[in-house]
């Protein structure tokens, strides 16, 4: 049997690296596409790609998604069966400083990915969204079927725009499309701009760590290997356009007008931020110097996923305890920076 071919954007990123590694292990041929932007340490991205390139079934192109001609050429040469679009300008807080980067990457770049998926009539287009699209919603746990029209940052707004764009393409071109909404993802090879990385670094160095809303924050922390397992299983759960709205089961976000669905991928549990900090302290055997701060603009006090639809579609539930996940990250961090 020929190997299925997956084109993964953002393959040198935190999630894209882990997903590519899993797909290779499961017999896919993977082509990665990554801009290697300097939003954070490029050497970390390069190390991830170097590891993937040890597998003969992985190849990669460095380029920006806004370059439609380049991305089209890559898609034409590779002829993917599946596209998993993870590349994006990430970061809620950075979107306050440089909002234009989010329009260029997340809107224009995503349009180019959708065009390639349409031209190649891929079996399934899967694209990353975010829990941030729930914005000011306060009815938790967040469910895919509830309205999400109150985004609080340009980052979240671009991701909601991606969902709307994808729905229109699914409808117009009968393109099976799944949008997955990530919650707070963490784990080995994580991003330096995210809390776990910054907290670990600060505790080791004895510098203060910033804790927003005076610690009264809750997050649905999702271990990265759980997340990519969920994505892998969703690849095989391509949505089909229903014959009528009555065919859609209660709680299913399947569109009545397109082969399109939104799926939460989260741990289905909210963890207090201070408990997360204590888990890092326990893993390092050292206390943090805590700098309590007010809520930052655009942030929300809590996120919490209802991931029952993911389980219904795949039979899978992310279940890694945050303490175990933190220990795995700290082990990786100490090894990566030669601190053991």
Could you please describe the fold and organization of this structure?
The radius of gyration is 19 Å and the shape is globular. It has one domain (5-186, 221-267, 305-318): Rossmann fold, CATH 3.40.50.720. The chain has helices at 14-25, 42-52, 68-78, 94-97, 99-120, 154-173, 195-205, 224-235, 273-284, 308-314, 322-336; strands spanning 5-9, 29-34, 58-62, 82-85, 124-130, 177-182, 184-186, 209-211, 218-219, 221-223, 260-265, 271-272, 290-292. Strand 5, helix 6 and strand 6 form a beta-alpha-beta unit. The longest helix has 22 residues, at 99-120. The protein is an alpha/beta fold and 340 residues long. The protein contains eleven helices and 13 strands. The strands form four sheets. The protein has a seven-stranded parallel beta sheet, with helices on both faces.
Please provide a brief summary of the model:
The chain is of the alpha/beta class. It has helices at residues 14-25, 42-52, 68-78, 94-97, 99-120, 154-173, 195-205, 224-235, 273-284, 308-314, 322-336; strands at residues 5-9, 29-34, 58-62, 82-85, 124-130, 177-182, 184-186, 209-211, 218-219, 221-223, 260-265, 271-272, 290-292.
């Amino acid at each position: 049997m020929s190997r299925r071919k997956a084109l993964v954007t953002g393959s040198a990123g935190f999630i894209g690296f882990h997903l590519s590694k899993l797909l290779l292990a499961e017999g896919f041929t993977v082509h990665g596409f990554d801009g290697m932007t300097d939003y954070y340490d490029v050497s970390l991205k390069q190390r991830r790609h170097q590891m993937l390139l040890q597998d003969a079934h992985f190849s990669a192109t460095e380029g920006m998604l806004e370059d439609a001609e380049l991305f089209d050429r890559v898609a034409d040469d590779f002829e993917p069966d599946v596209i998993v679009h993870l590349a994006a300008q990430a970061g809620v807080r950075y979107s306050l400083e440089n909002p234009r980067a989010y329009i260029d990457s997340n809107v224009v770049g995503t349009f180019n990915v959708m065009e390639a998926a349409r031209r190649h009539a891929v079996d399934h287009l899967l694209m990353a969204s975010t829990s941030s699209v729930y914005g000011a919603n306060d009815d938790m746990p967040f469910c895919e079927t509830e309205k999400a029209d109150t985004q609080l940052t340009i980052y979240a707004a671009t991701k909601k725009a991606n969902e709307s764009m994808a729905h229109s393409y699914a409808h117009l071109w009968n393109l099976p499309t799944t949008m997955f909404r990530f919650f707070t993802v963490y784990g080995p090879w994580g991003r330096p701009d995210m809390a776990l990385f910054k907290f670990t670094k600060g505790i080791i160095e004895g510098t203060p760590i910033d804790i927003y809303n005076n610690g009264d924050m809750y997050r649905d922390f999702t271990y990265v290997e759980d997340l990519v397992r969920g994505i892998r299983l969703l690849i095989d759960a391509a949505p089909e356009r229903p014959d009528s709205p009555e065919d859609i089961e209660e709680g299913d976000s399947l569109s009545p007008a397109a082969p399109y669905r939104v799926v939460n991928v989260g741990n289905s549990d909210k963890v207090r931020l201070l408990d997360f900090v204590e888990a890092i302290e326990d893993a390092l055997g050292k206390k943090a110097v805590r700098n309590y701060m007010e809520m930052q603009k655009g942030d929300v006090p809590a996120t919490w996923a209802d991931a029952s639809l993911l389980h219904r579609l795949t039979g899978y539930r992310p279940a890694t305890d945050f303490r175990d996940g933190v220990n795995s990250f700290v082990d990786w961090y100490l090894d990566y920076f030669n601190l053991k």
